[in-house]
Amino acid sequence: MIKPGDHGDVVTDVTNTLHRLGFIARVSDTFSDEVGQAVRAFQQERGLTVTGLIDETTQLAINEARWKLGDRSLKLTEPAMRGDDVASLQSRLIEMGFDPGRVDGVYGSQCESAVKEFQKSVGAKIDGICGPATVIALMRLLRTVTGGAPALLRDQASREKRGPALADKVIVLDPSSRSDIANLSFDLAQKIEGRLIALGVSVFLTRGLNTSPSEEERIAFTNNTSADLLISISFDRYLNEKASGLATYFYGSETHGIHSIVGEKFATIVQRELIARTDLLNNRTHAKTWPLLRLTKAPAVLLEIGYISNPKDSARLADPSFRDVIAEALVVAIQRMYLSAEQDAKTGTLRLEDLRKAGIRK
Questions:
Q1: Confidence of residue 97 (pLDDT cuts 50, 70, 90)
Q2: Are 90 and 193 found together in one domain?
């Protein structure tokens, strides 16, 4: 953690990048108030938690922001190459109809395959390395498709192929292991798990009652399950007890002009269902680049269901019947993800019994 008052080469490196990105007027070796404001602005733009401090996630994002497409040759390595240059490459490939996967700034095997397909299409050497010749070809070609339409079409086709039944879906539930809410989040996850299993869903939890895996371990676990959705469950807290309400987060980056199509859709459905069925304050949905949302291959959302530091929200969450309402709303939201417009129902009205009557439950 780099914080106000710190100084040295690490601060110089950080401020050098922030200076080149236009967030700060000059390079400094001391973490001053000006640096703190620049860090806040950077975090805001990048969809990170705005603290003004440089934690591990923020430092990684600053390091990645150093790279622009063409600064270096991009190739498959271990660990994987990360940076804004990779994200720019992925965006350009998508706009031309190739499929490098989501724009996450990580040069993985799917990105390499898309580069090879592009190289083949332009008659370049097919080696999966985005070097000078490949970059020049990318820059010269006109964008034949804009707005990420190929990704949207692929997503729609994939969801239609899977159909509305939940019996073949894999859902990963990620209850927060933060010490003050670990038991509460795990209890809610189990309530959701039971309802999903009854509908034939394959459900995995990222942790047990007394375990606390790291974020990296939870991401790896989810990716190894080939999940259809990841739902991370948490309850917020704040110094001011007046803070309250529900917010839902999905992967998106204004900097790169991209977002998870399915993640945003599901976040919107979840937010509306929970607000319609409870009296929680609507704090809306938000695009973020947090690692759990960004690096999970499946569409992922993070729910902050009320504030444990707010007396009214805390009292609600302590009530098992209220948690039952939350669990049912989440299950209905998951089902609505896969229903066609003709099958769907008005927000807040669909019940689990309706799913059985419609023959959706297998």
A1: confident
A2: no
